[in-house]
Amino acid sequence: MNDEEEALLSMRLSRISSADIDTLISKGRSYGDSWKKRGGVGAFMMLARKWDRIETIVKKDGYDIFKTCGLNTEDIMDDLADLRRYLMLVESHVLETAADQLAANEDPLSANAFRRMAYEASKMESRNMGLFESNKLPAENSIADEFAAQSDTEYRASMRDGER
């Protein structure tokens, strides 16, 4: 992939990601956390239903998703977007839950380190896609930066105090 192709891909993915974030925030205001109401099994089944629907649609075209998208753009694209957004919700929940579990096991150092790692990974992805430090979500960015700085300070203090 050359530089121009990378730039075009980055722009397309940035637009998709930005639209997904907007949609998730909007739907979150309307529906709350209803997607995880029935726990992990329910969340998995939500993903499976979307996949099953996509599979049913593409099956008639010999599983050629590109052909299906060319013929039936609206239905398949809606389902692909829904599945992608559900996957984002699940991944976000799993990352936060892992940090909470570390903290509950009285391992705040590991919990903060895990949160920091997850934050840095998402920050790096967002920067690569041109989303981080955008004018869209300044409050979230500053809160995340503040948390990361606090975690670093706590980590350094614990290392000075001999904690591990």
Give an overview of the whole structure.
- This protein is mostly helical and 164 residues long.
- It folds into 2 domains: 33-105; 108-164.
- 81% of the residues lie in helices and 0% in strands.
- It has helices spanning 3-31, 39-59, 65-71, 73-104, 108-128, 138-160.
- α2 runs antiparallel to α4 (73-104) and α4 runs antiparallel to α5.
Q: Please count the helical segments.
A: 6
> Topology as H/E string?
HHHHHH
Q: Uncertain runs with pLDDT below 50, 5 residues or more?
A: 132-144
**Oligomeric state as shown:** single chain
Task: Characterize the biggest β-sheet.
Answer: none
Question: What number of domains?
Answer: 2
Shape annotation: globular
Distance between the termini: 44 Å
User: How many strands in all?
Assistant: 0
Helix/strand/pairing category:
mainly alpha
Strand content: under 5%
What percent of residues adopt helix (DSSP H or I)?
A: over 70%
Q: What is the CA-based Rg, rounded?
A: 20 Å
